[in-house]
Design brief:
Blueprint (H helix, E strand, L loop, with lengths): L2 H27 L2 E8 L6 H17 L3 E2 L2 E9 L4 H14 L4 E3 L4 H12 L4 E4 L5 H6 L6 E3 L6 H14 L4 E7 L2 H16 L3 E8 L7 H10 L3 E5 L2 H14 L5 E4 L6 H7 L6 E5 L20 H12 L5 H20 L4 H10 L2 E3 L2 E3 L10 E2 L5 E6 L2 E6 L13
Parallel strand pairs: 1-3, 1-4, 4-5, 5-6, 6-14, 7-8, 7-9, 9-10, 10-11
Antiparallel strand pairs: 2-3, 11-15, 12-13, 15-16
Helix pairs in contact: 2-12, 3-4, 6-7, 9-10, 12-13
Length: 406
Amino acid sequence: MSMRAFRYIRHMVMGALCGLFITGGIAHAQKVIRIGAPLELTGKFVIYGSQGQRGLEMAVEAFAGTVAGHRIEVLLRDIQSTNQGAVSAMTDLLEKEKVDFLIGPIASGLVSAAVPAWRQRKPLWIVPGASALSFEEAIAGESMVFHTYAWGYGYHTGPANALAAAFGKGKKVAIIYSDGAYGRSHLPDARKHYTEAGFQIVATELVRENAADMNPALQKIRLTKPDVLVALMQTTDGIVVAKQIHVAKLGIPILVGSAFPQFQTWVDAVGEAANGWITAVAYLAGQAVPADPKYPRIFPAAKDWEAAFTKKYNREPELIDAMVYTSAAMLFLAIDRAGGGDKERVAKELRNLGVETIMGEGKFVPTPGGAVNQAFNEMFVIQRQGDKIVTVWPKARSNGQFKPIQ
């Protein structure tokens, strides 16, 4: 190598190193709030994770990317809709990245799988999903967990009471449930609340999660001639069960799903089989919800937020879009009020928040089951009637009545 070539290479290396040090110095000087976001971006729960990602994006934009003088940096991690993926992502975010704030995952089983990893450092954890009561038990007394999704019993108290009021007591109910954490955790509450509402449970059938064929269980249910069928399962299984009920022509006049009937992705997958399904919801686009008087830019009227969302994504928002947006916006507001990223101060500010949001009142309260911080536990009942969604309960906000499936 010639001396000239050597000097040229040395010059380039030194320049690169100088550039590296300067960039590192700038990065170090910047104030950053880092938010870990382990979400289901691929796999069977991708519809949850994709909504979560959109909600986070909208929340960051609402704060123009900064809070309390700090740049918001969201560290997205794809947990691939698996327990192992959830644990790996949580471990990476907590042990390597050392984040003090987490949002996600969404699906009950994946959230539960992440609990042991979370316990290692106990960052402030926003959980905008996980309705399973087993998770409520797991986080009992944990002051750093903020749950912003209705617990499983909310999916049963409303429909049971609404159906009893509409059709009277003594009707027969059959239950089909998946064998995972979600279905099993919902089963006791479904039994309890339908029984208390005056229904007679005539069948309880178990199906495997991700089963391609649920017909054997459905044919057993057919023999009991129920008036109501309650399906306790995640959305992917809800697609299978709805299609197979429709094809089998079971003739059951009332179909209730734990959560999946509210999702447009489920409707797109099952087509006309969606007609008549009932569920309880915490959010529905098109409701008349006013802006928060103190923070109208962050928590605008529902119609304005939904219009902005639709313009950005060319689709109407769904539950998890709205839930994650609201949860993240409340976290960012608490960080702003705390003046920075001290998680203890931020937790205190979160508990002190009381804001009007597109999800209703944003206020954290303890639950009878032991959760320290719970928001948005109120639900209402809807039914899909053709291409419309009709609110059927409670009467104060209803715009229609139940229509049994013919």
